[in-house]
Design brief:
By secondary structure, this protein is mainly alpha-helical. It has helices at residues 7-11, 17-32, 38-50, 54-61, 91-123, 131-147, 154-165.
Length: 168
């Protein structure tokens, strides 16, 4: 039994999960570059996972500049994964994450204080200051930030670095 030789024959070949994932990755990269909007990305990803042959995958990437079509994956040796960086991760990532978390908690606290103030004014008397309970995580985060010198743990820093490298 001979293999397919013309492009039309290759279009009828059933695809595997690796082929679908390769196309989905290409679509995600195009989305990260601003070439696709969210709705179009959703449609194309759904079509990629529903695809059965290479002919089903080709139109999904035909209008994208990188890898203009879905072709059978060539078997190549796996690329070596980069080694973990030597030395501690940059403290900037952890510091930024800590500050962002505290800003978010402070914003939630302020919103709750405003709601408490409005409710107290409409009732005509000051009610129990329940936003204090919302302030507990803010206080704990601030104490942790000050005691830690503005740096997070190496595990948290590595997590922030991984998040900053993602393209979603």
């Amino acid at each position: 039994m001979s293999g397919p030789s013309s492009p039309g024959d290759q279009d009828r070949i059933r695809i595997g999960n690796a082929d679908r994932e390769r196309v989905v990755q290409q679509l995600n990269d195009a989305f990260a570059e601003g070439r696709l909007d969210v709705h179009e990305l959703d449609e194309r990803v759904a079509a990629a996972y529903a695809a059965k042959t290479f002919a089903d995958l080709r139109p999904l990437t035909a209008d994208l500049p990188t890898g203009t079509s879905a072709a059978p994956a060539r078997h190549r040796p796996a690329e070596p994964q980069p080694a973990m960086p030597s030395g501690p991760p940059a403290p900037v990532a952890g510091r930024r994450g800590g500050l962002e978390a505290m800003r978010g908690l402070f914003g939630i606290f302020v919103i709750n204080v405003v709601i408490w103030g409005i409710v107290s004014l409409t009732n005509g008397h000051v009610i129990y200051f329940w936003p204090a309970w919302v302030a507990v995580p803010l206080v704990l985060a601030t104490v942790s930030y000050v005691v830690g010198g503005g740096r997070s743990s190496p595990r948290d820093q590595a997590r922030w670095q991984r998040r900053s490298r993602r393209r979603w």
